[in-house]
Amino acid sequence: MKIMNISLLVISVLTLILVAIVAFSFPNLHGRIHTVSQTVDRIEQAVEQLSVKEFVIVEVPQPPVSTKNVIQITDTGLKPTSLTIKKGEVVTFISKATAPVWPAGDDHPTHDAYPSVAYAKEGDQAKSFGSKACVEYGIRKGDVFDPCKLLLPEETFTFRFNEKGTWGFHNHVRPEHTGKIIVG
Asked: Of 174, 164, 162, 144, nearest to 76 (Cα)?
């Protein structure tokens, strides 16, 4: 019984010592927790006060890759520079260049000559390197003639031409490399 009392006393003393060490090591712990809690509350209030502009992004998947209608983008230009297709057909642009390329419809740099209801307002172009067709880099605004991103070697971009007419296009990275799609 005496050994048990001594053990209990030792455990109690060690517990008191441990509590004292923690208390003296972190004297402002309660104050820090309170400060963090106040900061979180302020952030939550600020988020509630933000006005969010509502917009809808419609993800439009690319059509299947075409083996019939293919434009190669090379280091020296486009091959072929002109292609005639029927309305509703797809064209696949494939990078055969050693550097990244960016095939897109004219006009440079806005890419808004091909008809689409999805083009952005003037103020949206800052996030997408001048293109009105993109929400931001890599995110297209619906069915637009622009991949909204660079294509690395052997990557493709496929687009379905549903509007008749002659549609100019270019390599956004090298805008002097131009071509046209004639849709009949």
From this structure: 174
